[in-house]
Write a structure and sequence with these properties.
Helix 3 crosses helix 4, helix 4 packs parallel to helix 6 and helix 5 crosses helix 6. The strands form two sheets. Strands 1-3-2-4-5-8-9 form a seven-stranded mixed beta sheet, with helices on both faces. The longest helix is centred in the last third of the chain and has 20 residues. About 35% of the residues lie in helices and about 15% in strands. By secondary structure, the chain is of the alpha/beta class. It has one domain: Rossmann fold, CATH 3.40.50. It has eight helices and nine strands.
């Protein structure tokens, strides 16, 4: 079975209590060596609400990345579920636990999280950045029980790689032994970014992000999203992600007949970094970004 056809079986939570028990079990089973802020976070009103929000963090970050935005959404009445992706959130920032994550693991995680969220509200919405953007786009295409999905700068292509050579390079990387690389080889782990994020990435994991991105485009070429509405968010000042791959995603969906796919672009003049979510990122502008994202989410 190709990755574009990979669809885990769905078992949606039927009640709030069932969903809460699932979340508690996940939190209890998390490794003891996590950073306290790196754990899965559940911001609840103690009962089923009108709307629930799932927030998928980016690669090498953790649930803390979305905590401030989650607090704002919780104050607006949402039950908010910010799950931790496997390998992330460890107190040891030089861990290699995230170095070999697969596209199948990302899909499995996205599917199980959406299952749980069904018990939190009848109206389930999803937002994610980068790796989390890919997971959001997967849910948008494959889950009809998602009301609205907002995918931000999904990591489906990288500026550092020539686009036409990306499929070949992706396959070569996955054949070779995995290597851990610094995001910034100049400062290594002494940079001024979030202390809950990792300074290194795994080459295999980046190749798996590209693999999932290609599978999502293959799905878009065949059919329209299952979610009721989708927003693809671009950042023209993004230093990492090739935004033309996001254009391809939207173009293929629309060619397949999708009607409820929107786009929003943060212009280069806004000078936003790739991680425009984490308030601990240098040069962050969350006071500008968050209201726009909340409007896109609720529009």
């Amino acid at each position: 079975m190709s990755l574009s056809q990979y669809l885990p079986p769905s078992q949606p939570a039927r009640t709030y209590d069932e969903a809460e028990q699932c979340i508690s079990a996940i939190q209890s089973a998390e490794p003891p060596d996590l950073n306290p802020v790196g754990r899965s976070q559940f911001l609840t009103h103690g009962q089923r609400t009108d709307r629930a929000m799932v927030l998928f963090h980016g690669y090498t970050n953790c649930p803390q990345q979305f905590k401030l935005l989650g607090d704002q959404l919780h104050a607006r009445g949402y039950n908010v579920w910010i799950p931790r992706m496997t390998g992330h959130g460890h107190a040891d920032r030089l861990t290699e636990a995230h170095g070999d994550i697969t596209a199948e693991q990302m899909i499995d995680a996205a599917s199980s999280v959406i299952d749980i969220a069904q018990g939190l509200a009848a109206d389930v919405r999803v937002m994610g950045l980068s790796m989390g953007g890919l997971m959001t786009t997967w849910t948008a295409h494959n889950r009809s029980d998602v009301v609205r999905a907002v995918s931000i700068a999904q990591a489906s292509g990288f500026k550092a790689l020539p686009k036409k050579w990306t499929p070949l390079l992706r396959r070569i990387v996955l054949i070779l032994p995995n290597r851990m690389q610094w995001w910034d080889a100049t400062v290594k782990d002494q940079g001024d970014g979030p202390r809950h994020a990792y300074p290194r990435y795994g080459m295999h994991s980046l190749a798996q992000l590209l693999r999932l991105g290609a599978a999502l485009r293959a799905q878009a070429a065949r059919s329209i999203p299952a979610a009721r509405s989708v927003v693809i968010v671009k950042n023209d000042n993004d230093e990492s992600v090739d935004m033309t791959t996001l254009d391809d995603q939207v173009r293929l969906w629309r060619f397949s007949g999708a009607q409820d796919v929107e786009t929003y672009t943060f212009g280069v003049e806004q000078r936003l970094v790739h991680d425009l979510i984490d308030p601990d990122q240098p040069a962050q502008r969350v006071d500008y970004v968050y209201p726009i994202l909340i409007d896109l989410l609720e529009r």
